[in-house]
Design a protein that fits this description.
heterotrimer; A alpha+beta (216); B alpha/beta (701); C mainly alpha (293); A: 216 residues; alpha+beta; CBS-domain; Alpha-Beta Plaits; 4-stranded antiparallel beta sheet; 10 strands; elongated; C: MetI-like fold; disordered N terminus
Chain lengths: 216, 701, 293
């Protein structure tokens, strides 16, 4: 699960000489929120987003109406974009969680995927969400069970063994440390079997407790 | 997984392109609209002159001095390409839009090494250093399964085969990871097995790079194999646009219907189907009908079609057609299996006589090749035909199939006397014909005639049609001089051309018409045997159908025996009674046509059948691909010539050692069906059929 | 199942006359060709109507009017023997306009035959033909003319022979290469499978299709031939005097160039204009016929 598997390849790109009016039109008409600016060979030069297109009023303070119009119409994308050196990018071979981490830490919604300076794709929050749904097999029906267990080696294996003993398959498996209780760990597991049977099978694991069970 | 609001890579709406000529503006393309999304392939299918290549050139602005876009827009990732400066377009081409042509030599510079050319793409667009660029190129060549890439980089284009050249071109096109790849008949010039491998490659690469592909072809089978959705073009307009399934299984436009009706299929024979050609001729862009452009040739036309031009409209979700009666047309075929029409011959096949009209035993035709040394040195021979034996029964058709270099053309030329045989017995009607044509008696010459492949060079441009058909009549004294003209007219009528063709010159004729004249010329003196060297390969699908039907009629009426060479297995299936499959100068398998298409197969036949693209998305086809290329006929492999590439060699107990040592024995499946292979017949009989088509399937599928 | 053609019959089967007219009208589409043609036509008319253009006798000498410039009696002046230059030009044009095309025709005939034979048969025959042609072409043209005329003597017929000899190899090469190309066509194969005689194939099947480039080349060669006749005349190897011969006129007037430069200039201009006219015509034709490829 690397970035290159989930990124959008061939994203829309802009060239630096585009006027910001045109860029604005383009982004609005096609509902683009983040537009990388590239030079020859798709080399990353900068990034445009809706915010960067808003001009700082301070720049215009001293101009009169006509001058403002002229100034605006002459503005090129390269004048307002975030320059390449300031753009946070990610390599296509990075694990996808890394991308998610960066997005969370830096509070950005989109990362250009860049390899040796060349833009290969774009990965956005939505793509990560899509990944999450894949990981949790959200589209597959089944019984979803949350099992809480101590954060100790071998506990997860016990759970998996219990499933395997019945010859069942695991549709998806995810897990995280319990936020309020760091010594415990929640596993979310989806099994395609009748609810009562699953309950019966998993509630008898020593040291583990079923927190939630529902049919999805 | 595509996001719901993702903009299409290419969005063409209402595109119209015209050419300026001496006589004014000619509207070559009118009202073409389609979309291609990322990782999708849009196939454009149409016959020659329909404007499909013009559309491609219009997108990349290669229209030439006198071509211009007069209407519509072309949005590439949301931005219009029409009206951009040449410089902007140049930076897009090669970097974000790439094009692959039919002839790889149009993209390759013959005087530069392949490595230099490929690296140039990266150096120019990305400013890479040459050494890094070359590394990338080698990686790309590996991705396209080029054997020994580092070596290939140092070679020149003419030193590699056509199939390999095309791979290099594809690799070059993908080096910069373009968002859009335009392919204009990229596999048309390749052999069937090579084509199959290249089509597989394209699929694979698309999966990896998510490229949007616009694929242009006139071959319905290929289009069915590569496309997700299809646009059918006729005389400059898109007449139908829908998913692959819909176009083939629920065609809504009469032209599409017509095309489907004239494509010979792998599962039909002469007796069970009839090709239905589309009557009439494609209108010239200078002279378009005032209403629907297809109306003059349409079986469903009504009054309104003559007066009003239909717009293209969405008749079902994602299914567009340019016809007022599209819904009716779909309904008419919705019920049950589509019928293929009445049987051509109501069982009236003349009984085959026992005595073969043509008998060939151990035929050999070698071409001497000058040796490398100045003096002495070994004499080298290209063994174009090496030990071929076959018989042709009067009144029947023998087909010969094989890929380029298999010797089928040479064999036929030797039979007719244009080449000198090196050995073997050639017997025609009991007479020996192992000498060149200049030494044969007039009678023999008269009874053995030929139809050639290329309609553009088969007629002498300086003489009228009537003169050229009359020539054999006069030469062989078929009728007295004062009846020659009447006889020519009779022949023209037989060819369904008519008397007013008598004075026309070849340049006033279309490809199909020229080929008919060539056929008339060949049969004018009532020959007993006519050799046809790929007579329909250069023709459009609908014209092909008409000519094939004509040949069948002639055979029926005149009882002429035919030997028919082709590389298209579906055409041969429809047309021939018996079939021979040739590989590298030898016969691999020979027998009645139905027997060839069903197991047991020679391994080469099996590979050939699995490579042929089938114009039916329901067809299940085995996926056998041959590795390597056809070996040179100068130095053919020892033993069985196919052993270097045979996928079934492992079926033999010792891994096929014997295949390299001894020539394969002749094995009989039935007295008429022979296979030359070391694998025992019982094993061959266990093979599964290569093609199975599910005739009935619910439409929900 | 019929193939209907009715909708398009209007374009086909035009009368012979219209086809001919359309063939001719190609010429008029090129300005260059028209200019060239006018020049050539001018001289042709001069040649035909010579007696009406000038009342002087080109051979009449007048001791009183030697090397005079243009005057009312002698419009272009006189030469060193008092002969009217204009008359000599006018009548001289007849010679040139007669001999040049004839020589070219002769070399076309000889060259075509050689080219067809070599190109069609190939092998040993082709080698022999080519080597002979190479041998001839190896000689510098002037030298060849000198040798030939020196061997057989100067006269109108011998001028034709000389030009034919020198011009055939070029034509033979052209026809040979056209033949090599045409020979690969399927209609030649078809003729061979009918057992047609090689002569038939060469002259009936191949030759008509080579006529395009051949005609244009021949037209150009008329220009060269005119040049050659002028050169021979200049060298004294052409028509014997006193026949008016433009080249000869230049040669004779050369001695008096300081006193009457026009005596040299006018014949030179005449030759130049005719050659240029022919070349323009041929060029224009070639351009027009290959434009919309």
């Amino acid at each position: 699960m690397l970035v290159k598997d989930y990124m959008i390849k061939h994203p829309p790109l802009a060239d630096p000489g585009m006027s910001i009016i045109e860029a604005q039109h383009y982004m609005a008409a096609n509902q683009i929120r983040h537009l990388p600016v590239v030079g020859g060979g798709k080399r990353l030069l900068g990034l445009l987003s809706r915010q960067t297109l808003l001009i700082d009023p301070g720049r215009l303070a001293s101009l009169d109406m006509w001058e403002i119009t002229r100034y605006l119409s002459n503005l090129r994308v390269e004048d307002v974009m975030v320059k390449a050196r300031d753009v946070v990018t990610i390599d296509p071979d990075t694990p996808i969680e890394q991308a998610a981490l960066i997005m969370v830490e830096k509070q950005i919604g989109c990362l250009p995927v860049v390899s040796e300076g060349i833009v290969e794709g774009l990965i956005t929050e939505t793509d990560l969400l899509a990944h999450l749904t894949e990981m949790m097999s959200v589209r597959t029906p089944g019984v979803r069970v949350t099992v809480r267990m101590p954060m100790v080696k071998g506990e997860l294996a016990k759970l998996v063994a219990a499933v395997a003993k019945h010859g069942w398959g695991i549709e998806s498996l995810g897990g995280a440390v319990v936020p309020k209780d760091p010594a415990k760990w929640d596993a979310v597991i989806k099994i395609q079997q009748p609810k009562e049977e699953v309950l019966a099978a998993l509630s008898s694991i020593e040291g583990q407790e079923i927190i939630d069970v529902r049919e999805v | 997984m595509r996001g719901p609001r993702e903009i299409p890579i290419l969005d063409v709406q209402g595109l119209a392109i015209s050419y300026e000529t001496r006589y004014g503006d000619v509207p070559a393309v009118r009202d073409v609209s389609f979309e291609i999304h990322r990782a999708e392939t849009f196939g454009i299918v149409g016959e020659s002159g329909c404007g499909k290549s013009t559309v491609a050139f219009g997108i990349v602005n290669f229209l030439g001095r006198n071509g211009k876009i007069v209407d519509g827009y072309i949005l590439f990732q949301g931005r219009d390409l029409v009206g951009r400066t040449e410089e902007e377009l140049r930076s897009l081409r090669g970097d974000r839009i790439a094009m692959v042509y039919q002839d790889p030599m149009q993209a390759l510079n013959p005087s530069m090494r392949l490595g230099d050319q490929m690296a140039e793409v990266l150096v120019v667009h990305r400013g890479m250093k040459k050494a890094d660029a070359e590394q990338k190129c080698i990686q790309m060549l590996e991705r396209v399964y080029m054997p020994d890439p580092a070596n290939v980089m140092r070679r020149y284009p003419h030193q590699i085969s056509g199939g390999q050249q095309q791979r290099v071109v594809i690799a070059m096109a993908l080096l910069n990871n373009p968002a859009l790849l335009i392919m204009d008949e990229p596999t048309t010039a390749l052999d069937v097995t090579v084509e199959a491998a290249v089509l597989d490659l394209i699929n694979e690469l698309q999966n990896e790079f998510d490229t949007a592909i616009m694929y242009i072809s006139h071959n319905l089978g290929v289009i069915a194999r590569v496309s997700d959705s299809i646009g059918v073009m006729y005389a400059g307009e898109i007449v139908e646009r829908a998913s692959v399934q819909d176009v083939f299984l629920k065609p809504a436009h009469p032209y599409t219907l017509g095309l489907m009706g004239c494509v010979p299929r792998l599962d039909t024979t002469k007796a069970t189907s009839y090709l239905r050609p589309i009557r009439g001729r494609v209108p010239s862009p200078k002279n378009l009908p005032s209403g629907c452009i297809f109306e003059p040739r349409c079986d469903y036309a009504r009054e309104i079609c003559r007066q009003v031009k239909p717009e293209i409209r969405e008749i079902q979700a994602g299914h567009w057609a340019r016809c007022f009666f599209a819904e009716e047309i779909i309904e008419q075929q919705g019920a049950g299996v589509r019928e293929r029409g009445e049987a051509l011959l109501a069982g009236a096949q003349p009984p085959a006589s026992e005595v073969p009209i043509l008998r060939i035993r151990n035929a050999r035709t070698y071409y001497p090749v000058p040796s490398r040394k100045l003096f002495g040195g070994e004499k080298l021979f290209v063994k174009a035909v090496d030990d071929v034996s076959l018989e042709v029964v009067p009144g029947r058709t023998l087909g010969i199939v094989g890929e380029s270099g298999c010797g089928k053309s040479t064999l036929v030329k030797t039979i007719i006397g244009l080449e000198k045989p090196t050995g073997g017995e050639f017997e025609f009607m009991g007479f020996d014909i192992s000498m060149p044509v200049s030494k044969r008696s007039l009678d023999l010459i008269r009874n053995l005639q030929m139809v050639f492949q290329n309609p553009d060079s088969t007629l002498n441009p300086s003489f009228s049609v009537g003169y050229q058909i009359a020539r054999p009549l006069k030469r062989f004294k078929v009728v007295p001089p004062n009846q020659v003209r009447a006889e020519v007219v009779r022949l023209l009528n037989l060819m369904k051309l008519g008397e007013n063709y008598y004075d026309r010159l070849p340049r006033q004729l279309s490809g199909g018409e020229k080929q008919r004249v060539a056929i008339a010329r060949a049969i004018a003196a009532h020959p007993d045997l006519v050799l046809c060297d790929e007579p329909v390969s250069a023709l459009d699908v609908s014209v092909q159908a008409a000519v094939l039907n004509l040949l069948l009629e002639i055979q029926q009426k005149l009882g002429t025996t035919l030997v028919f060479i082709a590389h298209d297995l579906s055409v041969v299936r429809f047309f021939c009674d018996n079939l021979a499959v040739m590989y590298l100068g030898q016969i691999a398998e020979i027998g009645p046509a139905e027997a060839i298409y069903l197991p047991p197969y020679h391994p080469y036949t099996e590979a050939l059948l699995s490579a042929v693209p089938i114009p039916d998305p329901r067809a299940e086809q085995k996926h056998i691909r041959l590795s390597g290329t056809v070996p040179s006929a100068l130095n053919p492999p020892s033993g069985c010539r196919f052993h270097t590439r045979c996928p079934r060699r492992a079926m033999l107990p010792d891994g096929g050692q014997i295949c390299a040592l001894e020539p394969p024995p002749e094995q009989f499946d039935t007295p008429e069906h022979r296979i030359f292979c070391h694998i025992p017949m019982e094993e061959l009989r266990k093979m599964e059929a290569v093609v199975t088509i599910e005739k009935e399937r619910s439409h929900a599928g | 199942m019929t193939v209907s053609e009715t909708a398009f019959s209007a374009e086909r089967g035009r009368s012979r006359f219209r086809q001919f007219w359309e063939g001719i009208s190609v010429v008029f589409r090129s300005r260059v060709a028209v200019i060239g043609l006018s020049i050539v036509l001018f001289w042709i008319l001069v040649a035909i109507f010579a007696p009406f253009i000038t009342k002087h006798d080109p051979l009449a000498q007048n001791a009183q009017a030697i090397n005079q410039g243009p005057s009312s009696t002698y419009w272009l002046g006189t030469d060193h023997l008092g002969r009217d230059i204009m008359a000599r030009l006018a009548y001289g044009s007849r010679t040139i306009l007669l001999l040049a095309p004839i020589s070219v025709l002769a070399s076309v005939i000889v060259g075509t035959v050689l080219g067809l034979v070599g190109g069609y048969f190939g092998g040993v025959v082709d080698e022999i033909v080519m080597r002979i042609l190479d041998a001839i072409m190896a000689f510098p043209t002037i030298l060849l003319y000198l040798i030939i005329i020196a061997a057989i003597g100067p006269s109108a017929v011998n001028v034709v022979i000389a030009i034919t000899f020198v011009g055939s190899p070029g034509i033979a090469r052209l026809v040979r290469s056209l033949t090599l190309d045409i020979r690969t066509r399927d209609y030649i194969r078809a003729a061979e499978t009918r057992g047609e005689h090689p002569l038939y194939i060469m002259f009936v099947e191949i030759l008509p299709n080579a006529r395009g480039p051949l005609i244009i080349d021949a037209l150009l060669r008329v220009g060269y031939a005119i040049f050659a006749i002028g050169t021979l005349g200049f060298l004294g190897l052409g028509l014997p005097p006193p026949t008016p011969d433009w080249g000869g006129m230049i040669s004779e007037a050369r001695k008096y160039i300081w006193t009457n430069p026009l005596g040299v200039l006018f014949p030179a201009l005449a030759i130049a204009s005719l050659v240029v006219g022919l070349n323009l015509f041929a060029d224009g034709l070639r351009e027009e016929t290959t434009r919309y490829q």
